[in-house]
């Protein structure tokens, strides 16, 4: 990260996708999505126990089961996209988030290796929900009935940013569920890389 930083509330990825709804988000959620740097907290991770579920989690490098583990998320911003590097205990995995275009215009896209998922962002009663709408593997669009099921949302509880992510599939059952809370470091708030 560079030493020079600037305020970017207007050009944050989630702000661009949400439009006027961005200003209605709780400040804790807005801070999380416009902060370059590291956020830290605690998380509980559950993993599916079936063979296919374990294989899917291994391929995607998803976190191991843990009842209560430290979590940190590093946010790096560049060229309108975001790299989220999540560390659960001593296990790390990353994804890239960016705005969709063409058929996926207006959707939040998240790429995990060869897989990309396109999601809606919806604000309901102070909760930001992500709804899976499309997916592709190796740049090949695939039908939704073949894809995973996802439940993902962000809330604020007792003044803290909380997250809930659950991924399953009809053939595997639960693959992973992780939930917990994060607090951005004070030096990260309302800041972003100068090359964003």
3D architecture notes:
- The protein is mostly beta strands and about 200 residues long.
- It has helices spanning about 15-20, 25-35, 50-60; strands spanning about 5, 35-45, 65-80, 80-90, 90-100, 110, 115-125, 125-135, 140, 150-155, 160-170, 175-185, 190-195.
- The chain has a 10-stranded antiparallel β-barrel with strand order 2-3-4-5-6-7-8-10-11-12. A two-stranded antiparallel ribbon has the order 1-13.
- β3 (about 65-80) and β4 form a beta hairpin.
- The protein is globular, with a radius of gyration of 16 Å.
- The N and C termini lie close together (about 10 Å).
How is this structure best summarized?
The protein has 196 residues and is mainly beta. It contains three helices and 13 strands; from the N terminus they run βααβαβββββββββββ.
Count of DSSP H/I helices = 3
Q: Assign the structural class, choosing from mainly alpha, mainly beta, alpha/beta, alpha+beta, or little secondary structure.
A: mainly beta
The succession of helices and strands, N to C, reads: EHHEHEEEEEEEEEEE
Overall pLDDT: 89
Globally, the shape reads globular
Low-confidence stretches: 1-10, 189-196
Radius of gyration: 16 Å
Main sheet overview: 10 strands, antiparallel, barrel
Strand content: over 45%
Number of strands: 13
Distance between the termini: 11 Å
Helicity level? 10-25%
Strand order within the widest sheet?
2-3-4-5-6-7-8-10-11-12
């Amino acid at each position: 990260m560079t030493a020079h930083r600037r305020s970017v509330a207007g050009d944050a990825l989630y702000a661009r996708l949400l439009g006027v709804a961005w200003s209605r988000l709780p400040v804790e959620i807005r801070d999380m999505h416009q902060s370059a740097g590291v956020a830290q907290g605690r998380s509980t991770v559950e993993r599916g126990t079936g063979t296919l579920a374990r294989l899917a989690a291994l391929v995607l490098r998803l976190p191991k089961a843990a009842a209560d583990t430290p979590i940190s998320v590093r946010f790096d911003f560049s060229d309108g996209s975001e790299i989220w590097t999540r560390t659960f205990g001593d296990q790390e995995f990353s994804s890239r988030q960016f705005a969709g275009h063409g058929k996926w215009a207006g959707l939040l896209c998240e790429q995990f290796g060869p897989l990309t998922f396109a999601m809606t962002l919806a604000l309901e009663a102070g909760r930001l929900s992500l709804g899976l709408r499309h997916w592709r593997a190796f740049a090949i669009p695939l039908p939704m009935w073949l894809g995973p099921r996802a439940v993902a949302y962000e809330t604020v509880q007792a003044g803290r940013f909380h997250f809930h992510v659950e991924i399953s599939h009809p053939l595997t059952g639960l693959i992973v569920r992780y939930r917990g809370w994060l607090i951005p470091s004070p030096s990260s708030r309302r800041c972003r890389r100068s090359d964003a």
